Every structure is written in C-alpha cells, then in structure tokens.
Amino acid sequence: MNSILGRHVIATVLLYTALVLLLLLVLGGLFSFIGQQDDIGRGTYTMREALTFVALNMPVLVAQFLPVAALIGALFGLGMLARGSELVVMRASGVTTLQFCGWLGTAGLMLVAFLYVVSEHIAPPLETYARQMKTFAKFAEFSFAGNQGAWVRDGNTIISVEQQSAVARFGGVQVFQLDGERRLASVARAGSASVDENNQWLLEDYVETVFGDRRTGATRMPAQNLRTAISPDFLGLAVARPDAMRLVDLRAYVAHLERNGLEAKSFEIAYWSRIARFTAVLLMVVLALPFCLGSMRDAGQGARAVIGILLGAGFALLGQTFENSGQLFNVAPVVVGWAPTVLLAVLTVVLLVRSR
Question: What's the domain range around 257?
C-alpha cells in the first residue's frame, strides 16, 4: 500500500512541477524575446534569428527556473492532495512525516537528475551556439578566429585579445595594421584596453613598432586611442562564461587561472553554486511538506503560489547577495556558494520539526 501511495505522491509532485516549469519557461521566453527587439535589424539578425536565439536558450532557463518550479509545483501538488483530504487519510493510515519526506526526496532526486542532464550536457553547448549565432549575425562584416583568445579583423586592422576581465575591459591586446597592399605596416601591444559605448578603444601601456621601407621605428606611450567598429560583444565570444561551462570544465578552468596567477574567485563561486543548486532542488520539494501538513493545508492555490514565489525569489536574491558580498569581503568561494542552500536546509528542518 505504501508503495502505491508513494508513487501517487511522487507522480503528483512531478506533474505539477512540470506544469509550473512550462509556465515559467513561456514567461521567461517571452521576456527574452522582448529583450531581443533592440538587436533585430542589426547586421543580418532578423526576427527568425531572434526566435532561434530564444529557443536555444530554453535549457538555460530550465536550469535557472527549476528550483523555484520544484517548490511551487510541490506546493500545488501537495495542496491538491490536502484539499482532497488525501494527505489526512494517508496520515491516519499510518504514513509518517519521515515517509512523506522520503517520497518527496525521491521526487527531488528525479528532478536533480533532470537538472544535471540539462545543465551539464544540453544547456552549455546550446547557449554557446546561440551566442555565436547572434553575434555573427549582428557583426557579419567582421571575421573571427581563436578559442583561447580572440583574433578579430576589421578591414586593415587585426586585433588580438588574450583575456577579458570585464564586459568592456581586456588584457594582452595586440593591434596589427595592414597597408593598402596587405603588407604589415605596424604592430602594437597594450597591457590592457577598455572600450566605451562608441567603440572607442583606450589602449594602456602602449608600445608600437612601425615598419618603413628601410627602417623601423618604435614608440612607447602611457595610453593611445584606437577607433574601430569592433564591439566588446563580438570579442566576448572568446571569453569563458561560467553559465556556458560544465562542472568539469569549470574546475579545470579554475585550476588554469590559479596556475597562471589570475583571478579565479568568480568561477569558483559559480562552481560551488552550481553544485549547491542540485541540493537546493531536493530541499525545495521537501520544503513544501510543512505548508501542506500544517496550518495552511486548507489554503487556496493562490496562497501557496505566493509562498512559493516569495521563497524562490528570496532564495535567488539571497544567493546573489552572498555572491556579491562574498567577493567584496573576500569570503571563501565554497562558503559563498553553499551559504544560501545551507540556510534553506535549516529552514526546511525547522519547519518539518514544527509540523510534527
């Protein structure tokens, strides 16, 4: 009997989680498509490419929305069972809170497995391809090469970028200028560079070598301006993004940055946050139980939806706050990544104990 009841509870939770996730994906896809309107018409980026871009980013939205969808779906599913007195009958027949937690934990593990497949094997390549497709369509007049850095050509100017430390700030920049006959006219290197909204480059610690017919000349300046049509968005294709990397790739990239004495904290935080998110999905499902066994067992679905949204939004806000403050106050990345999930676990245990 208990196995039948357990399968019924698990199936109900998974069904409502799938429905909530579908609704969130529709809303998320709509807002994402609205956000593409400013880019439509630039280069060869059309409505069709925008729709394709949104569709390819759906797995990323699944990974982002699943913890909240799991909580709201569990609240809805258990709420339906509570309103139909099914939970009361189950408890009267001897089903304990621990057994409920076991069933919900099984549903949570299924969702964790689904999240792992999506976030590790489906979302990263599709998100990378979507970003490349959009950028190539917007900047069709440029050529691009390289996967460990960026080599971009704009007419007779070729720019090489070794790394990107911010949205519009780069390091290890080299500029090659060709003359009208495609011969190398000059080579320059800058320790760092920044780009403003008008694509005006400010090259810092600038050294340039100019090639003449019979001689060469070298100049060194603290800073030099460079005007080009190349934007930071285009160069950003060569930059490693935590949300477009698998866990194993994140770990390897963190090790690479540490070996080279580069800042790796943001990638370490992303690594531990990704792992903690798997645990958070499991906890979100179990967290719904106290609200359906306690004083809110007769509450409407609207009230449960509000609770789920508030808790999910609070968890996301808490995670973002910890991430920002952790980098500011130099907190260990493992603490920053796991702190919101640990607090969620404490809240779940406290509410379960009170519901008993």
Answer: 2-138+242-355
pTM attached to this predicted model: 0.76
Nearest one of 161, 179, 178 to 170, comparing CA atoms: 161
- Assigned token pair, 111: 């969702």
CA separation for the pair 130, 259 (Å, rounded): 31
- DSSP E strands in the chain: the ranges are 143-145, 150-154, 157-166, 169-178, 184-195, 200-211, 216-227
Please give the backbone phi and psi of residue 216, each rounded to the nearest 5 degrees, phi first: -125, 155
DSSP string, 157-184: EEEEEEEEEETTEEEEEEEEEE-TTS-E
Same domain, 346 and 253: yes
Phi and psi at residue 161, in whole multiples of 5°? Answer: -125, 130
Give the orientation angle of helix 2-35 with respect to helix 265-293, to 10 degrees.
130
Residue 327, amino acid: Q
Q: What is the pLDDT of residues 193-228, one digit of tens each?
A: 877 767 777 888 889 988 877 778 888 888 888 877
Are both 116 and 168 inside the same structural domain? no
